Amino acid sequence: MAEGFFRKYAPTGYEPYSAGTKPTGAINPLAIQAMKESGIDITIQTPKTITDSMIREASKVINMGCMDRESCPALFVKNVFDWAIEDPKGKPLEDVRKIRDTIEKRVQELCKTL
């Protein structure tokens, strides 16, 4: 969801790299639905595993939240912004919408600083 919002709000010249330590095989269908309600289609995005080069090349590293403390990027990366946002996995649509709205606000705030 953050990648979708970043593509919408970021200034020209910025490119998001959205990845995780243990990505699932597909995007959460409720996240897709919630984002469509906001006018953003994330169906073309794919879950990716975070790489060292992604971190090295990034001008800012945002950690959405850590579900697995053993492999949490926030523990190993310097100057990471940890937003501590809940994982929408397994949550009902109402909760996914709240998570979506929180992510949108945070992305908008971030984009104002770029």
TrEMBL record:
Asked if ATP-binding is a keyword of the record, the answer is: no
What superkingdom does the record give?
Answer: Archaea
BP GO annotations: response to arsenic-containing substance
InterPro entries membership: Ptyr_pPase, Ptyr_pPase_sf
Q: Which residues cross the membrane?
A: none
What residues does the Phosphotyrosine protein phosphatase I domain cover? 1-113
Matching Pfam families, A to Z? LMWPc (PF01451)
Task: State the UniProt keywords alphabetically.
Answer: Arsenical resistance
Protein name per Swiss-Prot or TrEMBL: Arsenate reductase
Natural source organism: Candidatus Nitrosotenuis cloacae
Taxonomic lineage per UniProt? Archaea, Nitrososphaerota, Candidatus Nitrosotenuis
